[in-house]
Amino acid sequence: MLRRSLLLRSLIALLAALPVTAASVKPESVGLSEERLHRIHEAIQRHIEARNISGAVTLVARKGRIVHLESHGLMDVESGRKMSTDSIFRIYSMTKPVAGVAIMMLMEEGKVRLNDPVSKFIPEFKEMKVAVAQEQSTPAALTQSQSPKSYTIPAAREITIQDLLTHVSGLGTARLSDADMEKIARITLAEQVRQFAASSLGFQPGSRWTYSPLAAFDTLGRVVEVVSGQNFEQFLRQRIFEPLGMKETFFHPSAEQWPRVVTAYTRSDGALKKTENPNRLVSKTYFSGAGGLMSTTEDYAQFALMLSGGGQLNGKRLLSPKTVELMASVFVPDTTPGLQPGRSYGLSMRVVNDPIAAGQQVSAGSFGWDGAYGTHFWVDPKEKIVGILMVQTSNPDRQVDRDFESAVMQAVIE
């Protein structure tokens, strides 16, 4: 009797330690075909055989219920270790929507406004300059080691929180070198953001859309710190990850978690080459809102399902439905210089306003974002679908994303 009691306690403890996830159901119960969902594996397998990726984990949910979660291929080519559904991925820029939600939570509390100048929270941003390329009389005479000279002029206006969320600020549009990234990982947001403020803007605020890989959203992370009185990691953990049951989303894995981190690869001459330094943003001091998080597929699904659910999941509300709707609204239309047809920009996320022009088989109004090494997610409000693709291979043409989207959407039967 005692032994049975101990076994029961152990089972209860084990179940309690499992991550809180949306309930899995039969696909047909939410209007998807189980048979057609098998085509997801076929699509991913084609890319594995073509050596476009080493492996992947895919997830599909509809109406708040997970109906597909599958691992494909290898997490490490050299050892032949198979991909697992609990593999851990560097999600890179899929961190940005998480930072966006943090800002929107503070906006709902009346502590931040979208039109607030960034200098309200970080005074060093008060008088920014804009770099202007000096015209060359004989540009053809420039050698590879030379570049056009530039000078600075005052910014026409201050950059705002909304500018940072929508990549129209002009801040940090140039990519940093690996050496710079390694230095950043050893300091704090407060130290680095002061350096961002000392740099020149790439263009006048609001005049165009140009992706800010690091500076804009790391500055937003610092705003969260200033307003909340917590460091960025603490805020995300206490206000977002813990309420959503996201136990495996973090800036730095534990010793026990490292073996589940997927090896990163780069495509080169028809082969996969191991990336030399994929952990340059993995840090215990620099909590990058632009690209520092790591996560599992099912863990990130809790975040995406919260957005799909109008700001709440499993009885935990992070945002109001109107705030999620605002995030997924078109703030920067696709007619803005720098954007592609059919793809506009909302608050921290891309919005597909015209699927035909964008070349995507999703509904108009779908929103989401990607990560540099192949991670991709989207929320389709019309079809109530969440799709997540976790890959750890540099994926510049994003064709894997498009094929995954098509495989998901062709499974909709009602």
Describe the structure.
With 414 residues, this protein is of the alpha+beta class. It contains 13 helices and 17 strands. The chain has helices spanning 2-17, 34-37, 39-49, 96-108, 161-166, 178-184, 189-198, 215-228, 232-244, 297-308, 321-327, 355-358, 399-409; strands at 55-62, 65-76, 81-82, 89-90, 129-133, 150-154, 249-250, 265-268, 271-274, 294-295, 312-313, 316-317, 343-345, 350-352, 366-370, 376-380, 385-390. The strands form 5 sheets. Strands 3-2-1-17-16-15-14-13 form an 8-stranded antiparallel beta sheet, with helices on both faces. A 3-stranded antiparallel beta sheet has the order 4-10-7. It has a two-stranded antiparallel ribbon with strand order 5-6. A hairpin with a 4-residue loop joins β16 (376-380) and β17.
The number of distinct helices, counting runs of at least 4 residues, comes to: 13
Distance separating the two termini: 51 Å
Shape: globular
Percentage of residues in strands: 15-25%
Secondary structure class reads alpha+beta
Low-confidence stretches: 1-23, 136-146
Reconstruct the topology from this structure:
Layout lengths: L1 H16 L16 H4 L1 H11 L5 E8 L2 E12 L4 E2 L6 E2 L5 H13 L20 E5 L16 E5 L6 H6 L11 H7 L4 H10 L16 H14 L3 H13 L4 E2 L14 E4 L2 E4 L19 E2 L1 H12 L3 E2 L2 E2 L3 H7 L15 E3 L4 E3 L2 H4 L7 E5 L5 E5 L4 E6 L8 H11 L5
Antiparallel strand pairs: 1-2, 1-17, 2-3, 4-10, 5-6, 7-10, 8-9, 11-12, 13-14, 14-15, 15-16, 16-17
